[in-house]
Amino acid sequence: MLTHVIIRRVRRRRPRWSRAAAAALSALALGLTAAGCGGGPRPPQPVGDPDPGHRRAAVLNPVLTAVPLGAGVTGRQSAQTRWDSCDGVLSTFGWDPLTAQAEFAGGGSAPAVVAHVQEALRTLGWSYDGSPTQGQYQWHRAVPGGAGAQAELYGPGVPDGGWMLQASAPPATHPSDGC
């Protein structure tokens, strides 16, 4: 007859696959980190305000109104900028120039389009610089903060016989570098 009962706590064994899975996951995470997929250097965060009070955009956006009446606008972008690096090098990150752009077709003969844009930009305070090359016309104007802005008209022929009118100004702070 039994006089004593021995009670043992039963240990539950973990399956071997869990240890193997943990080891494999650790090795995978380590490999991804070493390969640069685990975070690596991050691009710098934007610094400063490229257009305080939107004062530079207020000079550039009216250029879009210089498109001749009757022209069909095929593309339009109001003045904006973005934090960027043209070559991907961390030390060259900064603000791209503020740019407003319109693409259009029609609006009259080439001399009529140029004359219309020239008069409209003169009324907006832009000074005509001339045409350095065939199909390219340039203007300039100061923007708040003393920087210079430029406007350019390209065409006809950009694209498919159309025109492109673009105005741009440098950002007020931290321009991209090395482009």
Describe how the helices and strands are arranged:
Blueprint: H1 16-34, H2 55-60, E1 72-80, E2 83-84, E3 94-95, E4 98-105, H3 110-123, E5 127-133, E6 136-142, E7 148-154, E8 163-169
Antiparallel strand pairs: 1-4, 2-3, 4-8, 5-6, 6-7, 7-8
Give a nutshell description of this structure.
The protein has 179 residues and is α+β, with helices and mostly antiparallel strands. The protein has helices at residues 16-34, 55-60, 110-123; strands at residues 72-80, 83-84, 94-95, 98-105, 127-133, 136-142, 148-154, 163-169. The longest helix is centred in the first third of the chain and has 19 residues, at 16-34.
Supply the key terms:
alpha+beta, six-stranded antiparallel β-sheet, two-stranded antiparallel ribbon, 3 helices, 8 strands
Structural class: alpha+beta
Shape: elongated
- SS elements, strand count: 8
Oligomer: single chain
Identify low-pLDDT runs: 32-38
Across the major sheet, the strand order is: 1-4-8-7-6-5
- Give the topology string: H per helix, E per strand: HHEEEEHEEEE
Arithmetic mean of pLDDT: 83
The largest sheet is: 6 strands, antiparallel
Share in helix: 10-25%
| Helical run tally | 3
Distance between the termini: 95 Å
Beta-strand residue fraction: 25-35%
Structural account:
Helix content is 22%, strand content 27%. It has 179 residues and is an alpha+beta fold. The strands form two sheets. A six-stranded antiparallel β-sheet has the order 1-4-8-7-6-5. It has a domain of 118 residues. About 4% of the residues have low confidence. The longest helix has 19 residues. It is elongated. A hairpin with a 2-residue loop joins strand 5 and strand 6. The chain contains three helices and eight strands; from the N terminus they run H-H-E-E-E-E-H-E-E-E-E.
